[in-house]
Design a protein that fits this description.
heterodimer; A: 99 residues; alpha+beta; elongated; B: 445 residues; Alpha-Beta Plaits; ten-stranded mixed β-sheet; five-stranded antiparallel β-sheet; 28% strand; AtuA_N (chain B); ABC transporter substrate-binding protein (chain B); AtuA-like ferredoxin-fold domain-containing protein (chain A); AtuA-like_ferredoxin_dom (chain A)
Chain lengths: 99, 445
């Protein structure tokens, strides 16, 4: 099973910082998702895409985790040479995480 | 108990207009806010104003207002927008002129000024840039714009003076929506819980269709009904800050606890400390409850005192990006695209000018996120090459070296495109709020 089947994501950008929220469809899955998706795990998953640290904020009442990833957007929308300068598509790659 | 209804008419500078008009016609609204300024938009507008002092406001302002003003007048809806961008005064004059042409009498149009400190940016040259930790003076490029994210104060002042249409420059997105709540309910600016609630409402509404399903659909797992006819959101809220978010029944899209949760965390870092000019909002305890289909009640937002500074975005020209693309199809297309990439990379080596951050990606394979694997059995591949240079001509050279693959590269290249963009970068600094003077101008038709 992939994370895609039990959670949805939304990605946003501020300068060179990307944030991805991960929200479970069913509150029962919040525990296994929060256990697996540690900041260390997310940083490793994105590899060289995320050069800085990853912070996680928990909102259990919404079944949501918010990941803030520093130095993740090649300078950000105002200077990156990437196709997706906002990194809006990044969060979707988390949905490949196996469960 | 007194309550008001606020609609969202635009979530970014180029947004669709039709859903806003639907809301104004059938939403029983008291207010509608149009948000149209992203991080860099105002720097682009400052550049336009420099080239022509009559410009510098949103390109779509008059197109939108021609349809919006008659509805606002007929249904007694007040309009608040930051589409004044770098030139709210000129925007106000043009909107007042348009209202007169449309025969709309006694319409009071206001412009909120005070965010633009471009002419005294040198006073702050020793301030630390948030993104780099270095002093602003280190940038060593022409700093051509400086705009602060103002809060709700100027808009509240305009509402107190009976303005109908309020046009601002850079105002923080949620502040556009917070202002009518402060004015209508007389909330104290130091009632931090109310300020937090109003900021959350603004944050939910500021991206328009993003909270009604316009950034949500994933066929098979997240179905959104009639997305083609997406409706924009509105909030009904009472004087103690309780309320719900919804959309018009006959429109597409949906409002659910899931769409609201996604929007609540959109571009938020620490949910307990979301910094805005009006307050430090706390979204960490927010909950959503479905009252009926497409109607979601919100609760639990709070806040703390605001910081003593305004964030100021400083714009500067930072060179150019040259970009070229070309496609290959059929058997072995990936190998040919990779050969093309190798050819361009070699041709861009050892030039007399520097290219930085050169990227060579295959669109559809690794241009968004490099998973480190390249599938061979696909039927088309598109090479994209982009790099930064100091001059426009140098950037053009990169773009051309992709196009020339037509007759100087592997067989079967097609659909080549090229472009050159000037890079407008932003550095953020913090400036004491006391250094700003807000000034509201009016024009009545």
């Amino acid at each position: 099973m992939k994370l895609w089947e039990i959670a949805h994501v939304r990605t946003g950008d501020k300068g060179n910082i990307s944030n991805v929220s991960v929200t479970v469809y069913d509150p029962e899955h919040f525990k296994i998702v929060s256990e697996k998706l540690t900041p260390e795990f997310i940083k490793k998953w994105f590899g060289k895409q995320v050069l800085g640290e990853v912070k996680r904020y928990d909102l259990p009442q919404l079944g949501a985790l918010n990941f803030v990833m520093y130095d993740a957007l090649g300078g950000g929308v105002t200077s990156s040479t990437a196709l997706d300068k906002h990194g809006k598509t990044l969060g979707a790659y988390l949905l490949n995480i196996p469960f | 108990m007194k309550k008001i209804r606020i609609g969202s008419g635009a979530g970014y500078a180029g947004d669709r207009l039709e859903p806003a008009l639907e809301l104004m016609e059938h939403g029983n609204l008291n207010y509608i806010c149009f948000e149209g300024l992203a991080e860099r938009t105002i720097a682009l507008a400052q550049k336009a104003k420099k080239a022509d002092p009559e410009k510098g406001y949103n390109d779509l302002l008059l197109y939108r207002m021609e349809k919006v003003l008659p509805l606002a007048h007929k249904n007694k809806i007040k309009v608040i927008t930051n589409m004044g961008a770098a030139n709210p005064k000129k925007a106000m004059e043009e909107v007042a002129k348009l209202a007169t042409t449309l025969g709309l009498k006694n319409l009071k149009v206001a412009a909120v000024l005070g965010d633009d400190i471009s002419n005294k940016i040198q006073d702050y040259i020793r301030e630390t840039v948030i993104e780099t930790g270095q002093p602003l003076s280190e940038i060593n490029k022409e700093l051509f714009s400086a705009n602060a994210y103002l809060g709700s104060d100027g808009i509240v002042e305009a509402l107190s003076n009976d303005a109908d249409i309020i046009i601002t420059g850079r105002v923080a997105d949620p502040s556009l929506f917070l202002a009518p709540l402060l004015y209508e309910f007389g909330w104290e600016k130091t009632d931090w819980e109310k300020m937090g609630i109003g900021t959350m409402i603004g944050h939910l509404l500021e991206c328009a269709g993003q909270v009604t399903g316009g950034y949500f659909a994933d066929p098979g797992v997240k179905e959104v009904p009639n997305l083609w006819n997406l409706g924009f959101p509105l909030v009904e809220v009472n004087e103690v800050g309780k309320g719900f978010i919804t959309k018009l029944d006959n429109t597409g899209g949906m409002v659910t606890t899931a769409t609201c949760t996604e929007q609540l965390l959109y571009e938020i870092h620490d949910p307990e400390n979301y910094l805005t000019p009006d307050c430090t909002a706390d979204f960490s305890k927010v909950t959503f409850k479905e009252l009926q289909k497409d109607t979601i009640e919100f609760s639990g937002a709070s806040g703390k005192s605001a910081t003593a500074t305004h964030k100021v975005s400083v714009g500067y020209l930072n060179g150019f990006i040259g970009e070229g693309q070309i496609s290959y199809g059929g058997p072995n297309c990936v190998a040919r695209a990779l050969l093309a990439k190798e050819i361009v990379e070699k041709r861009l080596e050892n030039l007399s000018f520097p290219i930085s951050e050169l990227r060579c990606d295959l669109i559809g394979i690794n241009s968004l996120f490099d998973k480190g694997e390249i599938p061979k059995d696909i039927n088309e591949a598109r090479l994209r090459v982009a790099g930064k240079t100091n001059t426009k001509e140098q950037a053009q050279f990169i773009a051309n070296e992709v196009e020339t693959l037509y007759t100087n590269g592997p067989y079967g290249g097609g659909g080549a495109t090229k472009k050159v963009d000037e890079i407008i970068s932003i550095a953020s600094i913090l400036v004491p709020k006391d250094d700003f003077e807000i000034n509201v101008l009016y024009k009545t038709t």
